[in-house]
Structures are given as structure tokens and as C-alpha cells.
Design a protein that fits this description.
Length: 292
């Protein structure tokens, strides 16, 4: 069970979100057989995406985060819906590189120190909203913070953490927080947020102390009175289906389908959950009449 909370300060100056995403990141590691550093990279991205998803307004809105960089694991992709449910994948899930100079998993070394973060929001309009910013660090949290500042002009602080057992390489803990200033925030609000952040070591250290997401928000922002807006359960969940895969095949067009029909069987594998969909030649040929 992954708990995500959304809180607001009683003076109306900021929102605070926090999630314990341990199970979600464990599921991602199991589905994709992620290496240590890829568990940290994708784990951070899906944790961030989950909170960003909850900030979407419409029920059917979705959000895609794609980090394409010059590292060997690139790209990493996460998709979230407005319930905070996520799915994701890594270009090369098995990349192993040495720890960075701080003795930590080298996420930017795996994804890239240079690259772009693309944020796509499908809000049910004719065209999805898309924005792209260059990496600040390639460490994920700073890049998400910069996205909000540059593209949405919303001062935001994002913290993300994934703790991996160095012995058996299994994910132990994962979580994140997102603080967003509201238009009523002033210099005093910023000072109080900065004071609070000085005392923050990492999200995972709070989690290993047994703190709940609600308690973590209060710990990070001790100078604010925070009120709970909602508490939800989020998880790693793929929504692929035979119908969606069929539609993707139809989108390949008549020529594409004829090429597939040269083989007795066509196999499609979902990037997000590795589920296999197998179509016979007859099934592929039957799709041709669906092409416009
Ligand atoms: Zn799937």
C-alpha cells in the first residue's frame, strides 16, 4: 500500500504533497528487473509523476514525464493519471555503473548529465500540452522543480528518494514530497519553507524513522499549520488491454499490417508491464478492413 497525502497550509500560501511509494517502486523493480541505479532513476521518476498526477484537475487527465539524456540507461519514462497511479519504463533497465562521488547511486550518470525533460499533459483537449526543459542535474527532483518554475511559473520544491539494499539490490524504501507555493505566498512564506528544508536529510531517512507522509509534511514545514486535504492510495498499474494494442496495430496502417501478416504470429509486448499480446496471421489480416 502506498499512501499519498495532499495538505494545505491554513494561511493558504502553499500545498504540500508527500508519498510513501515503496511498494510502487518495488513493483517497478520486479516488473522490469531493474538494476540498482535504474531502480533509483525510475523509482524517483514514478514517485514524482504520482504526485504530479494528483495535481491534475480532470478525472481523465494523464501526465507523461520523459527524461532523455546522454547516459546509458536513457530514456526513463513515467506516466501517471489523476489518481496518482503510475507506470513507467527504462531504455536499458540493466545498466550498472559505479556509485557517484558522494557514495550514492549515480542516477544522472545512468540517465545523463545532459538531456531534456519532456512533460506532456493530456487534458482531454484537442492537442496535449507539452513542455521541454534541459536537465538541471539529471537527478530527477531538481529537474521536476525546474520544470514547474520555468514552464508553469510555479515556485516548487521537489524531493525524491529511493533506498536500495546494497547487498541484495532490492528496493527498501521510496518516497517523495512536493511543495508548491500558491499565489498568496510572500517572502515570509519562502523564508519559512527554506528554514524547514534545512532540516531535511532525505525522504527515505524520514521513512526509515517510521514517519507517515502526513508526519513528513509537518516535519519539513514546521512553521506552517498544515491541514489534510486528502489521503489516497496509489500504485504501479498498467492499463494496457487487447483493445488498446489492437488499436495501435491498426494505426500501423494497411501496409504495416500486411508486413506483419507475413509472419504466422505477431507479438506485441507492453513497454510498461511486459505483458505479451499474440495475434495470429488471420487476426492481423482481419484488422486491415478496420484501416481507413
Ligand atoms: Zn501493460
Amino acid at each position: 500500500m502506498n499512501e499519498l497525502v495532499r495538505m494545505i497550509s491554513d494561511d493558504g500560501t502553499l500545498y504540500a504533497l508527500c508519498v510513501n511509494s515503496t511498494e510502487m517502486v518495488k513493483d517497478a523493480q520486479n516488473i522490469h528487473s531493474l538494476s540498482k541505479v535504474c531502480s533509483a532513476a525510475l523509482g524517483r521518476l514514478i514517485t514524482g509523476a504520482s504526485m504530479m498526477g494528483v495535481l491534475l484537475k480532470g478525472k481523465d487527465d494523464t501526465l507523461t514525464l520523459k527524461m532523455s539524456g546522454n547516459g546509458p540507461a536513457s530514456p526513463i519514462v513515467a506516466v501517471a493519471n489523476s489518481d496518482g497511479f503510475v507506470k513507467g519504463y527504462v531504455g536499458d533497465a540493466h545498466v550498472n555503473i559505479p556509485l557517484n562521488s558522494f557514495g550514492k547511486l549515480d542516477v544522472s550518470g545512468a540517465v545523463g548529465k545532459e538531456g531534456n525533460l519532456t512533460v506532456i499533459k493530456d487534458l482531454g483537449l484537442k492537442e496535449p500540452y507539452a513542455a521541454q526543459i534541459p536537465f538541471v542535474s539529471g537527478e530527477v527532483a531538481e529537474d521536476i522543480t525546474a520544470y514547474y518554475y520555468i514552464s508553469e511559473q510555479t515556485p516548487t520544491v521537489c524531493g525524491l528518494g529511493v533506498l536500495v539494499n546494497p547487498e541484495d539490490e532490492q528496493v527498501l524504501l521510496a518516497g517523495g514530497f512536493l511543495i508548491q507555493l500558491l499565489p498568496t505566498a510572500d517572502d515570509d512564506t519562502i523564508t519559512k519553507v527554506e528554514n524547514g528544508l534545512k532540516g531535511v536529510k532525505s525522504v527515505t531517512s524520514f521513512l526509515s524513522d517510521g514517519l507517515t507522509p502526513e508526519e513528513i509534511c509537518k516535519k519539513i514545514l514546521p512553521e506552517f499549520n498544515l491541514e489534510l486535504l486528502d489521503r489516497t492510495n496509489v500504485e504501479y498499474k498498467c492499463d494496457c488491454s487487447t483493445e488498446k494494442v489492437t488499436n495501435a496495430l491498426i494505426a500501423a496502417g494497411k501496409d504495416g499490417l500486411l508486413e506483419m501478416a507475413e509472419d504466422p504470429q505477431t507479438e506485441a509486448v507492453c513497454h510498461f508491464c511486459n505483458k505479451r499480446y499474440v495475434f495470429t496471421r488471420e487476426q492481423i489480416l482481419a484488422l486491415i478492413k478496420e484501416c481507413i
